[in-house]
Structures
1.
Amino acid sequence: MQRWRALLALMLIVVLAACGQAQNQTDVPATEVPTSPNAAAQTTVPDASLAATSNPSPVNEEITTSPETVTVEPGTTATAAGGSTEETATAGGSGQAAGGTSTGEFNCGDTSQLGDELHIFSWADYWPVEDDNNLLQDFQEACGVEVTLDTFPSNEDLAARIRAGNSGYDIIIPSDYMVDILIQEGRLLALDKSQLPNMANLDPNQMGLYYDPNNDYSIPYQYGMTGIAYNKAEVNPAPDSWAAIFEPAQLEPYQNKASMLDDEREAIGAALKYRGNSYNSTDQAQLEEAKALLLAQKPLLARYDSENVSGGLASSEIVMAQAWNGAAALARSENPDIEWVVPKEGGVLWQDNLAIPSDAPEPYTAHVFINNVLDGKIGARITDYTYYLTPNKAAESMVSEEVRQLQFYPDDAMRQRLEYIERKGDPAIYSDIWTEVKGQ
């Protein structure tokens, strides 16, 4: 009898264990089965056999929805701009939202939060506005937001407008060192990265740079270099040194047909570099020497020009110019004699960025617009217009072959001669020199 009782007890234990296992397998309803790795990290994962029957779509399959297209790459999750989304940690701990589209379709986010207008303050020739590639018009038609674009010739002009307050701008395009300055002054809005899932498209090598280590305030837009552009049919020998544009004997044959950028850090920096110094020197003696070079050069120049340097080169009105690589490439598209070089003494590597002023009237609309700019296909449209280098990895393969053939890329040797312009000391030390040079 005791053996029988023991056997009954053993059978009861087995039955209870089986019931417990079945209960565990049905604790998670089918509607809560995670559909992405993100969700899986936050919810108890059901038994594999149950998940297979309740979630027929593979977790890592690319998913496309319409009309607001959201592409989910393997191992990521995405959401429409402005929708609720979980942020996932990325390399560097920036809290960047996961996922990135390359569809070319405009995602208007939560249209109830969109403003009627969006105001952008930008460098010239930086946004596609041609009949067959008008990005601003396309965004307006898709999302019902009227876009107004104003341009500035230098970072200092941009800063002056923003410092005055109530500029009315929702998006600005400061360069690296100016991002640093504006952050220090509290003039940029901290970005809501949950509204920027297309940050996932950006090249990690162009992220987390010295001026904004976690990209809390700025998003890479275009990057490039500063050197000398010249017309090979007019300029002989071909320049390989800043001496071509600073030594009067070398510049005189091209008097009134040469230009410098209308930019205090670029112009002063080039003079500093010619003398073997850093673009970022704050040494008073070195700066005085740079000022003397600029004052001696000025009577031989046609003008200081940042906004139409490509037009001057293309028309051969200007045959040699301090110029950004993209402006030279754009001129080359109209005039095949245009070449561009980083002088042997060195030049500038720079990156321009999308940022939102701290007093922007429409910060939500600005986030929506920026997220669309970071779409791979839209990013390629931008580079096809600007001829600069894109920090958007998803866009690279979609840039037209014609533009790729005209662009100037840095090789390893060239990169070693390049440096970033940085915020050093009191910015007024450069502004004072520039005021004196321009005033002569």
2.
Amino acid sequence: MRTYIRSAALVAVLGLVAVVAHADTLLIDRHEAGEAAPHPARGALMSTVESAYGPPLHRVGPVGDPPITRWVYENFSVYFEHSHVITTVVNKAHADETGPRPVN
């Protein structure tokens, strides 16, 4: 009986380790992946971004005050305040990541 309990406990611990090892991608992983990938520079104009990267797949905004607009490209999203880039966020840090869920 004790062997069965120890075996069951070992299986449970190994299962938890497997779950932790397959955890979600952290925001810092996305940030580090984004630093290495080509992306629009902070302060760039919308027209500069569009001429360099083409039209976005999707445009969201403007929302709020100051107006924040988001352009979604295949690998990254660009956030603008008025017409200037304020930040760029990588959509996925690696191909296996499921990424953020789309906002409806």
